[in-house]
Sequence to fold (136 residues):
Amino acid sequence: SHPAHSVIVLWSLGAHESIIEASYEASCAMQSQLIKSERYAPLSHSMNLLSSQYNSYLNFFTAEIKSKGAAVTLEEYIFSANANIGSTSGKGEPTMVSRFVDGLIHPFIHTRYGFEFGLPGMVAEGTQQITDFNIE
Fold:
């Protein structure tokens, strides 16, 4: 996600195209390979998820955002009672808001850029990043 962050920040500050391209190339060189999956993750509100399922969860959140919109998707899967401690679902104690702000608020930054610049895919990526964090 760092290539996207650097490009958006530099573009919003009015950086020259050559600087944006150089930053993008440098950021991409540091990224690891992604394991592709065409399936959706079996999402449950227990949210005991593995980062190895990144692409599955990204596919899931992308489809949810396309279907319901970003705000409704975030409310359902991040901010609702069912997605957080105090849930009456009986599926364990989900912790999505805690995950949202974990890791020095990285998912929040990514999701905010998506909202601010009208990039639904970036909102889906930020939402997916929340599933990678284990708060235990």
